[in-house]
């Protein structure tokens, strides 16, 4: 079992100018013994390597379900406002939930985009200019 959610690593996965796809990866810790057991250095680490057979299940345990969609993964915000639903608002400025993956979000325009664990409200953001 992974330790408590520590935060999220967020990166721009696909940059199309005004429209970007952001990807979040949950981090757990501070638990050096756990990180060592899954082959990661330090006391804050990813839940499992992406190729691990139990990566999806363990990641879902660490993050819980997003109250915004009911899917496993983080809740997403832009400038502290919840992202709109999957088919809402087209490509208007702000953010829109990804249709199939709660760990991804569509970002439109500048702002601070944050992924937050629903259970404990652990958040991490990325500034997009």
Topology, number of strands:
9
Give the C-alpha Rg.
15 Å
Largest sheet: 5 strands, antiparallel
Provide a count of the helices.
2
Unreliable stretches: none
Query: How are helices and strands ordered from N to C?
Result: EEHEHEEEEEE
Helix and strand composition category: mainly beta
Quote the average pLDDT. 95
Helicity, in percent?
10-25%
Basic shape: elongated
Strand content: 35-45%
Q: What number of domains?
A: 1
Briefly summarize what is shown.
By secondary structure, this protein is mostly beta strands. It has helices spanning 32-37, 55-63, and strands spanning 5-16, 19-29, 44-46, 75-78, 81-82, 94-97, 104-108, 111-116, 123-128. It is elongated, with a radius of gyration of 15 Å.
Question: What does this molecule look like?
Answer:
The chain is 12% helix and 41% strand. The protein is built from 2 helices and 9 strands. Strands 1, 2, 3, 6 and 7 form a 5-stranded antiparallel beta sheet that branches. The chain has a 4-stranded antiparallel beta sheet with strand order 5-4-8-9, with no helix packed on it. It has one domain. The model has no long low-confidence stretch (mean pLDDT 95). The protein has helices spanning 32-37, 55-63, and strands at 5-16, 19-29, 44-46, 75-78, 81-82, 94-97, 104-108, 111-116, 123-128. The protein is elongated. By secondary structure, the protein is mostly beta strands.
């Amino acid at each position: 079992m992974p330790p408590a959610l520590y935060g999220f690593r967020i990166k721009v996965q696909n940059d199309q100018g005004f429209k970007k796809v952001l990807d979040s990866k949950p981090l757990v810790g501070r638990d050096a013994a756990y990180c060592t057991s899954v082959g990661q250095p330090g006391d804050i680490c990813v839940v499992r390597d992406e190729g691990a057979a139990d990566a999806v299940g363990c990641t879902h345990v660490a993050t819980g379900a997003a109250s915004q969609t009911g899917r496993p993964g983080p809740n997403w915000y832009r400038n502290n406002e919840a992202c709109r639903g999957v088919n809402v608002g087209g490509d208007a400025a702000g953010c829109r939930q990804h249709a199939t993956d709660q760990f991804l979000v569509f970002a439109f325009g500048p702002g601070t985009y944050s992924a937050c664990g629903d259970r404990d409200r652990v958040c991490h953001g990325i500034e997009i200019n």
